[in-house]
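Good morning N.,

You mentioned wanting to compare the apo and holo forms, so I went ahead and generated the holo version with 1-O-phosphono-alpha-D-glucopyranose. This is what I fed in:
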Amino acid sequence: MSIRTVETAPIAGQNPGTSGLRKKVPVFQAPHYVENFVQSIFDSLEGAKGQTLVVGGDGRYFNREAIQTIVKMAAANGFGRILVGQGGLLSTPAASCVIRARKAYGGIVLSASHNPGGPDGDFGIKFNVANGGPAPEKITQAIYARTLTIDGYLITEAPDLDLDRLGAVTLGDATVEIIDPVADYKALMHTLFDFAAIRAAIAGGLTLRFDAMHAVTGPYAKAILEDELGAPAGSVVNAIPLPDFGGHHPDPNLVHSKHLYDLMMGPDAPDLGAASDGDGDRNLIIGRGLFVTPSDSLALLAANAHLAPGYKSGLRGIARSMPTSAAADRVAARLGIPAYETPTGWKFFGNLLDAGLATICGEESAGTGSNHVREKDGLWAVLLWLNILAVRKQSVRDIVHEHWRIHGQNYYSRHDYEEVDSEAANGLIAHLRDQLAALPGQTLDGLVVKTADDFAYTDPVDGSFSSKQGIRVIFEDGSRIVYRLSGTGTSGATLRVYLERFEPDPARHGADAQQVLAPLIAIANRVAGIKERTGREKPDVIT
Ligand code: G1P
Ligand code: ZN
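and this is what came out, ligand included:
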């Protein structure tokens, strides 16, 4: 087998965003597009020769083609062992788990997360480092810089591999091993949760519905929830990963999981309803008759984590992204442990977890996880909920209401305006920045602005600094409006507006969040001039 050097030229726009390089499938299918980016990754690494690389993705359209190219390039670039999930599958948390368990140098994860798949859908490539987490910004910046100067890439001349057959084959000087995508992950879950208690609870009548949304968690959820924990067949639905996710949008929110929501609000609701996204790192949690916001779910998991064996000695700290509600901070305060506030994106949690400063992390965008891997983990959250339900023997609703009585309720919502004209979106943010100095002290519809800033973060571990991470308007009563532009979209700009109000009085808990937040929503729209600048009357998605 020979290694071929192929001449190429830089391609514009290969700039990794919040979570790797995300583009439409046809963009990735263009000549040299994948090769340029992957070679730029390899060129940005040191000491990878002879090391292990993990490769896998969420099974979306173009997954298999990209894997064939990446594996041949990895062998040509000197990796000694390449581990590939069978069928090209590895959920994002499982990829993180395998990188850690097999002491790999890193991994390439193929996914566009919750974005639609198919020939006109989205695709993505992300590099994860040895701790199992997304590459830090200094590496993604080096990768991007390399894409701007690249003039050639290396690839092994070889026929395509059989991605479905377990076992090892030789490719040039490298060994390629097709591994069971579930095994390492399942073993890790066993170390964290009380499987016997959950199994007993399910045998005793605890019911659940898990919607894999035709995406990657299907095989994981079947193996763990049904085969191991004894949930009846059919508890996991849409369990076969499809390249186009069955034509659906694999985003577990109240819009795209409406059928699950309707089930959970109806007379036949099981005790726990859950869903995960395209690549398995997000989670949606709905109790019978009650949707649990992701911010609340983070707080609840943190408050109850000690009930699971893996966390029985308590938490070191809790970290949340800045736009996530402060509900988790209240738990940290009660537990007497530190709370960390980071910019949006899981990569910012990596250092806190590695340094042992935080044990549990989460984002309002339906991501929760812990120090067991370095990605957020959808099924992990479902298992922790099940463990808690099995021990407490209460309904989700009772557990949530009790939590609010103790900590107060952080009413919370996010309004998304999608595919907004980029110039208009940038103009809106610039207009907000211009107002930052003048806002403090102003009274808006009876609410006094306490502070207004553009969030900046200094990593407490390595001192790295990230600025312009979202506009915050914080009021005297603790209410908050946050504005930021998405870093994961693939067409136009997505404006996210995050709204939060704290309510300590139990008599006022459990009301409709949109109604409670209506005054804040009106202020948010007016201060930013959303309607005038975007031409939108209302958000596309409300979560
Ligand atoms: C979104 C979420 C963010 C999450 C990221 C990757 O990023 O808001 O919390 O980490 O997807 O799943 P955004 O599009 O807002 O940049
Ligand atoms: Zn995802």
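The chain has three domains: 2-181, 185-313+378-406, 409-542.

Happy to go through it together on a call whenever suits you.

Best,
F.
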